[in-house]
TrEMBL record:
One of its GO terms (biological process) is DNA replication. NCBIfam families: IS21_help_AAA. CDD domains: AAA. Belongs to the IS21/IS1162 putative ATP-binding protein family. It comes from Edaphosphingomonas fennica. Residues 105-240 form the AAA+ ATPase domain. Residues 257-284 are annotated as: Disordered. Keywords: ATP-binding, Nucleotide-binding. GO terms for molecular function: ATP binding. This is AAA family ATPase.
Length: 284
């Protein structure tokens, strides 16, 4: 092997990289070899660079595929959230959620507040953090979720659909209260919540306080059963303030709308105490 010409050895490396499906390492091979020849790096550093670049490419591909599977409408980050526009929001509490401990504890994070205050942005950003951490994530507005469950029930595949939705480490249900729930939808949503109870984490966003959920779901009894499970191991984040989207046209919007007067904050939580020292205030 010592008599093999350097060019033949390089060709052999190229073939190996192709067979190992390492396109990024193959792409930078020549440049890396030149740096070795020029004395900029040694062989160990070159090997580390080739493998690091390849791993980075594969990780980016994994994240891209996982984000697509998560069905996120857009990719947003906490770095892109303007905390200064919503002074009522505890920034440290949100950043603590980004540590994703709530997923390990199978807790439910409620993001409540008027439209435009950043609930969906924060939910999406936390979902992105979970994807990057290798968690299985599924994001869906409540109206679309109930439509999917209704279709599955009609086709006789409800059990399979709920099993699929229960597999995700994090289920994000967006826009609770924005559209009326179709008849029977509350019961279908309850079946899914019940399947995930104490098994999988959720993030829920809503422009309606908990006291209004009977109206939202059209069934006070089912709404009570939902809240019984969704508030047992819960983190409740209430965002008060004006719409970020309407900030440039605030003068044209009635004051009661700007101030989110239509939003009724949730009452203080009642019911079963959290177990194992858990509380609604673990993050702040």
């Amino acid at each position: 092997m010592n008599g093999v010409a350097p060019s033949a050895r390089v060709d052999s490396i190229r073939r190996s990289l192709v067979n190992l499906k390492m396109p990024r390492a193959l792409e930078i091979l020549d440049a890396t070899l030149r740096r070795i020849e020029q004395g900029q790096i040694d062989g160990i550093e070159a090997l580390d660079e080739l493998l690091g670049e390849e791993l980075s490419l594969r990780e980016n591909r994994r994240i891209k595929a996982a984000l697509r599977m998560a069905r996120l409408p857009v990719v947003k980050t906490l770095a892109g959230y303007d905390f200064s526009f919503q002074p009522s929001l505890d920034r440290n509490r949100i950043l603590a959620l980004a540590g994703l401990d709530f997923i390990e504890r199978a807790e439910v994070v409620h993001l409540l507040g008027p439209p435009g205050t950043g609930k969906s942005h924060i939910a999406t950003a936390l979902a992105v953090e979970a994807v990057r951490a290798g968690k299985a994530v599924y994001f869906i507005p409540l109206a679309d979720l109930i439509a999917q469950l209704t279709k599955a029930e009609r086709e006789g595949t409800l059990r399979e659909k709920i099993r699929f939705l229960a597999r995700a480490s994090l289920l994000v249900v967006d826009e609770i209260g924005y559209l009326p729930v179709t008849p029977g939808g509350a019961n279908l949503f309850f079946q899914l919540v019940n399947a995930r109870y104490e098994k999988g984490a959720m993030i829920l966003t809503s422009n309606r306080g908990f006291a209004e959920w009977g109206d939202v779901f059209g069934d006070p009894v089912v709404a009570t059963a939902l809240l019984d499970r969704l508030l047992h191991h819960a983190v409740v984040i209430q965002i008060e303030g004006s719409s970020y989207r309407m900030r440039e046209h605030a003068a044209l919007v009635p004051e009661n709308v700007r101030n989110g007067a239509a939003f009724n904050p949730p009452p203080k939580r009642r019911g079963r105490p959290p177990t194992k020292g858990k509380s609604d205030h673990e993050y702040g």
